[in-house]
């Protein structure tokens, strides 16, 4: 049983890992390979700040809320490990700031210690009048993801299908190159990484009128702080540009004046794979005389790290169904 | 009006902050800070500088709360300004955890710190040996950055700094009109105070930049305090121990206790051992004393004995010490009634 996972960002790697962990003991012939043209630190995942935080509004597909929670609980279980820092995992507390009152997010009971900010805390952010949420989440430094059997780069579906029994499509924003998807668009982001070790809290501002990620945010990572606030739908430019740099820098310095002393370490652009819903489903593709099973797992927008493990588990479930249909399972899979 | 010459003995957080306070609030005086040790070699440089106050049995609780609040508010204003990084003051959130439910579930300082609340059951799962906890946001004020910043401010307002070991407060007479005694443990000798004694604290300053929260066991013996450029792991409370050399066995033991609370600390690197002697006393000594020897008079304001709460209380007590200095200045400036012979 040859499984080819295309894509080596957080979605591809975690899905590959999940399938491997779930089925290797029940399927002797299981062989999972990850094909990609880009590996860490060059994937979209590597640009992300990695904070676990879903969008504020409920997803159109309620399963996504469930996958977010599964991911949080999974990461939380890893936090107590001596190896957490090497995995790129750490708890972090901070503030979500709004200009007007908003209802509590649907995930408030998933994170730990969610609460509204007190008046004195709000006084620290004079531009923001209302609310806020402090709660701990996990910044997951994407650069430290464990690569899982990375192999040669590939950019053609055809090459892959000839040797694969099942293809897992985790190609993210570039899924359209393999199969056109008008619902998938790049949500271009640009971020600045700085050295500002005195900042221990994330600060994320929200402007519901402008939309998600278009308002300044400051997210401390394991080694550096990520500054951002750019979201441009349909923009495929992978180069950093100066107006965006200025937007980020001015917005974040207004939010946190001590940033003026921060040393800039680097600047990156990436494309959030934006889609109205995550595409997580099976498809049978016909190539010549044979059918190849494909499981799509792409379109995670700006919440890939937030949702990745729940999706990986769901793909593993779908994979299990494929095995059942082909009478390949001798015993039930180890854990799902 | 003659300039009143004030000597501040001690250049830890008490000496420097009192000197700065006096320079701002007492007109017409000159200030000289005199000490044998300056940053980074003072006790204040070893302290983590967390604003979590201890309790002083001999000081009224209202006073403790006032001083802590004044210190917190003062540093909070700094942390919200562009000076935060220069002053070495940061905001940090975290937990104080208890192995058994405390009799006082809400401490007196709960409304001084930010966002104080009890930990949720889910949060406590991270600490299986503990059954209760506080979650809050407080400030950390780091000696090695804060003291030089205070020194700079002092010099900027005309204050002087002198490196000299004082063996007897009378050495300062008649060059100075008022002495402010911020000599910490040195007061055992300088003030003949047998109530002050060291409580030895050993700590490890390590690299673990992924640790963003403080964790403190309510006993005060085990704590993890993330700072700007390192994490302080502690500690010990060894009463009457004057030994300033780090003990390797103790360091291993501290690391082990901290790793039990925060397993990711197994990955900490670049460990440095430090020792400080907390200048401990049943109550903080904040009072005037008029030293007399023959016809010589030397007004002294004592300002020492903060134990483990030096940084947490320093600004509040410095303000009070400054008020006492002001009283001494008023007395000096009041013309003495003609003595009847």
TrEMBL record, chain A:
This is Uncharacterized protein. It comes from Ovis ammon polii x Ovis aries.
TrEMBL record, chain B:
Its EC number is 1.4.3.1. Its cofactor is FAD. Residues 5-323 form the FAD dependent oxidoreductase domain. It is an enzyme of class 1 (oxidoreductase). Keywords: Cytoplasm, FAD, Flavoprotein, Oxidoreductase, Peroxisome. GO terms for biological process: D-amino acid catabolic process; L-aspartate catabolic process. GO terms for cellular component: cytosol; peroxisomal matrix. It catalyses: D-glutamate + O2 + H2O = 2-oxoglutarate + H2O2 + NH4(+); D-aspartate + O2 + H2O = oxaloacetate + H2O2 + NH4(+). FAD binds at residues 43-44. D-dopa binds at residues 223, 278. The keyword Transmembrane does not apply. The keyword Disulfide bond does not apply. Coiled coil: none annotated. PROSITE patterns: DAO. It is found in: Cytoplasm, Cytosol; Peroxisome matrix. GO terms for molecular function: D-aspartate oxidase activity; FAD binding. Pfam families: DAO (PF01266). PANTHER family: D-AMINO ACID OXIDASE, D-ASPARTATE OXIDASE. Selectively catalyzes the oxidative deamination of acidic amino acids. Suppresses the level of D-aspartate in the brain, an amino acid that can act as an agonist for glutamate receptors. Protects the organism from the toxicity of D-amino acids. May also function in the intestine. Belongs to the DAMOX/DASOX family. This is D-aspartate oxidase.
């Amino acid at each position: 049983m040859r499984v080819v996972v295309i894509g080596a960002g957080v979605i591809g790697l975690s899905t590959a890992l999940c399938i491997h962990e779930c089925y290797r003991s029940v399927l002797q012939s299981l062989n999972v390979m990850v094909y990609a043209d880009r590996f860490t630190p060059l994937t979209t995942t590597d640009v992300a700040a990695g904070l676990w935080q879903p969008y504020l509004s409920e997803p159109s597909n309620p399963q996504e809320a469930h996958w977010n929670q599964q991911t949080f609980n999974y990461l939380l279980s890893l936090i107590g490990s001596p190896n957490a820092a090497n995995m790129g995992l750490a708890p972090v507390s901070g503030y979500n700031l709004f200009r007007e009152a908003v209802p509590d997010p649907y995930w408030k009971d998933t994170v730990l210690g969610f609460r509204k900010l007190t008046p004195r805390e709000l006084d620290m952010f004079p531009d923001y009048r209302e609310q806020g949420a402090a709660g701990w989440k996990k910044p997951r430094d994407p650069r430290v993801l464990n690569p899982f059997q990375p192999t040669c780069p590939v950019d053609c579906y055809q090459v892959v299908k000839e040797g694969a029994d099942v293809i897992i499509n985790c190609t993210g924003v570039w899924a359209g190159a393999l199969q056109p998807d008008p619902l998938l668009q790049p949500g271009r982001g640009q971020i600045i990484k700085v050295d500002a070790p005195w900042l221990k809290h994330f600060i994320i501002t929200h402007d519901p009128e402008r939309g998600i990620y278009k308002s300044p945010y400051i997210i401390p990572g394991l080694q550096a702080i990520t500054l951002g606030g750019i979201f441009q739908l349909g923009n495929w430019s992978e180069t950093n540009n100066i107006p965006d740099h200025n937007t980020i820098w001015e917005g974040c310095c207004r939010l946190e004046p001590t940033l003026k002393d921060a040393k800039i370490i680097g600047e990156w652009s990436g494309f959030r794979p934006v889609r109205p819903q995550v595409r997580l489903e099976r498809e049978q593709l016909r190539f010549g005389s044979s059918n190849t099973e494909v499981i799509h797992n792409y379109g995670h927008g700006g919440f890939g790290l937030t949702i990745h493990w729940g999706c990986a588990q769901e793909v593993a479930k779908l994979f299990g169904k494929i095995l059942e249909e082909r009478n390949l399972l001798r015993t039930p899979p180890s854990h799902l | 009006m003659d300039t009143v010459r004030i000597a501040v003995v001690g250049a830890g957080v008490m000496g420097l902050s009192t000197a700065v306070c006096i320079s701002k609030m007492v007109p017409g005086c000159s200030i000289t800070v005199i000490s044998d040790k300056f940053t980074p070699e003072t006790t204040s440089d070893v302290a983590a500088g967390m604003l979590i106050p201890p309790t002083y049995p001999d000081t009224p609780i209202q006073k403790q709360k006032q001083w802590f609040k004044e210190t917190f508010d003062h540093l909070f204003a700094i942390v919200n300004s562009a000076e935060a990084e220069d002053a070495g003051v940061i905001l940090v959130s975290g937990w104080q955890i208890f192995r058994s439910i405390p009799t006082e579930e809400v401490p007196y300082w709960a409304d001084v710190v930010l966002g104080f609340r009890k930990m949720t059951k889910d949060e406590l799962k991270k600490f299986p040996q503990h059954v209760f906890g506080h979650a809050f946001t407080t400030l950390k004020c780091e000696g090695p950055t804060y003291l030089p910043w205070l020194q700079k401010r002092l010099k900027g307002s005309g204050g002087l700094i002198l490196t000299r070991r004082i063996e007897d407060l009378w050495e300062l007479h008649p060059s100075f009109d008022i002495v402010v005694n911020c000599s910490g443990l040195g007061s055992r000798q300088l003030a003949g105070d047998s109530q002050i004694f060291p409580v030895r604290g050993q700590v490890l300053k390590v690299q673990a930049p992924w640790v963003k929260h403080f964790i403190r066991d309510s006993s005060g013996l085990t704590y993890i305090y993330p700072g700007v450029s390192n994490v302080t792991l502690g500690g010990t409370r060894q009463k009457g121990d004057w030994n300033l050399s780090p003990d390797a066995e103790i360091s291993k033991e501290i690391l082990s206790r901290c790793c039990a609370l925060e397993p990711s600390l197994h990955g900490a690197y670049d460990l440095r051992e430090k020792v400080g002697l907390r200048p401990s006393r049943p109550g903080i000594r904040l009072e005037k004393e008029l030293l007399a020897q023959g016809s010589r008079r030397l007004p002294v304001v004592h300002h020492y004995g903060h134990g483990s709460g030096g940084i947490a209380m320093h600004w509040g007590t410095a303000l009070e010490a400054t008020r006492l200095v002001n009283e001494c200045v008023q007395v000096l400036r009041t013309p003495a009634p003609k003595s009847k012979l």
